[in-house]
Amino acid sequence: SFPTRIYEDHHEVPAVTLQLAPIAFRTLERQPVLPPGIDLDGLPKPALRAFWWAVDRIGVDPLARTALHDFFRSRGQRPERRLFRDWIHSPRRVLGLFPEWFGPPQPDWPPQLRLVGFPLFDGFAEARLDAGLHDWMTEDLAPVVFAPGSANRQAPRFFEVGAEATSRLGRRALFVTPWPEQLPRPLPDHVRHLDRAPFSALFALSAAVVHHGGIGTTAQALRAGVPHVVLGGAFDQPDNAARLERLGVGRRIRPGRLSPARLTAALHALLDDEGVAGRTAELAARLRADGDGALQRAADEVEAVARGADSLTT
Fold it and tell me: Most buried one in 85, 157, 244, 310, CB count within 10 A?
């Protein structure tokens, strides 16, 4: 939020900046997985410094600084450099909206960062399914839910492969998208479609979730205690997928490599592994026990900054 940081800097008003996922924080230690699936972990630190310098100075700053150049010049200041390394974060407080076990803090992350946990908001005032859908979800083996993201209008292959893979597994499938023109026509008998639904209720009745790796969908599936297959290729999605894989609760498939055989194999491996079931249950129990703790901790941190406190005392 450039306006927030500008206002904080030039009017000396305390601000709190938020980051949804671990990939937002630069580090020379454990590297995030970058789109579309680039893993730089293991490179020596000089190489990482050079890489991030090039990303900022050649890729990011020329675009971002264009918008801010006139503003800074009008105040007699030089435009900020390497905006996304340092300046984008408030020097007073940064909140990471994820738990430490999902994104372990690195030694060179901002010292003013506090991790509060997943807010677990799914956009519905009441997280309930209608009776017909609930009965369908529970009448046989739990279905696999496919959710490519509400803004994704380029997912015909995602649904085509999902229908074929679940048919091979003998499982039902539920496709969640507000863009029904992407779906196979006609829908196979074992597949049902929804425009939208409260994930907090829906995922709890599913066998697994195949999704794009968005942090909100990831958090809801973790809370439901079900395994993930993630096909994300942009933004924070590949890194979230890698973290799920390291936690032992998911598999990742690059979108360009998606096929019925690969998806069938990934789902089969996850659904038949008792170790995966144990790990998903353990993480779900943590999130359920936390309840609304993330929201409370975030509110406490905001109030502490408003009071001028350096850190919480309660």
Answer: 244
**pLDDT at residue 310, rounded to an integer:** 55
Q: How confident is the model at residue 208 (pLDDT cuts 50, 70, 90)?
A: very high
Q: What is the full DSSP assignment across the chain?
A: -HHHHHHHHHH----EEEESSGGGS--SSSPPEETTTEE-TT--HHHHHHHHHHIIIIIIHHHHHHHHHHHHHHTT-PPPSSIIIIITS-SSEEEESS-TTTSPPPTTS-TTEEE-------S-SS----HHHHHHHHSSSPPEEEE--TT----HHHHHHHHHHHHHHT--EEEE-S-GGGS-SSPPTTEEEES---HHHHGGG-SEEEE---HHHHHHHHHHT--EEE---STTHHHHHHHHHHHTSEEE--GGG--HHHHHHHHHHHHT-HHHHHHHHHHHHHHHHHTTHHHHHHHHHHHHHHTT-SS---
pTM (two decimals): 0.91
